[in-house]
Design goal:
By secondary structure, the chain is α+β, with helices and mostly antiparallel strands. It has two domains: 30 residues, no CATH class; 73 residues. 51% of the residues lie in helices and 14% in strands. A three-stranded antiparallel beta sheet has the order 1-3-2, with no helix packed on it. A hairpin with a 2-residue loop joins strand 2 and strand 3. Helix 3 crosses helix 4.
C-alpha cells in the first residue's frame, strides 16, 4: 500500500503507532488514498507478469470488480487512474461497473 515506517517521536496524528509488549516501537505513515491506488495497480501488474493494458477483457473486468470492492472508485480521479493503467477509456470502466451492477440485481 506504500506506507512507510517512521520513528515514534516523529509520528503525527494521522500515523498509526504500533506497540510491542506495551511499548510503542514504530509508527506507520500511510499514503494518501490516491497514492495507494497507484501502488495497488503496480502490484497487480507484478502479479499478472505483464503490463495491465495487455490483459484480455475478462481479466480487466475482474480487476475492475476487485478494485471496486476495495473502494478504488471512491477516490478522486479513481476511474481515470484505473482507465489509464488498463489502457481503456473511462467509458469502458463505467461499462464494466454497470454490467456488474446489472448482474447483481438480477
Amino acid at each position: 500500500m506504500g506506507g512507510r515506517l517512521i520513528p515514534v517521536a516523529e509520528a503525527v496524528e494521522d500515523d498509526v503507532v504500533l506497540s510491542w509488549e506495551g511499548a510503542e516501537v514504530v509508527a506507520v505513515r500511510l499514503p494518501h488514498l490516491s497514492d495507494s491506488l497507484s501502488h495497488i495497480l503496480a502490484e497487480w501488474e507484478r502479479r499478472y507478469g505483464c503490463p495491465l493494458p495487455e490483459l484480455d477483457r475478462r481479466a480487466k473486468q475482474s480487476l475492475v470488480r476487485q478494485l471496486e470492492s476495495r473502494g478504488a472508485f471512491s477516490v478522486r480521479h479513481g476511474v481515470e487512474t484505473v482507465a489509464s493503467a488498463l489502457g481503456v477509456s473511462r467509458f469502458t470502466i463505467y461499462n464494466y461497473l454497470n454490467r456488474d451492477g446489472a448482474r447483481s440485481t438480477d
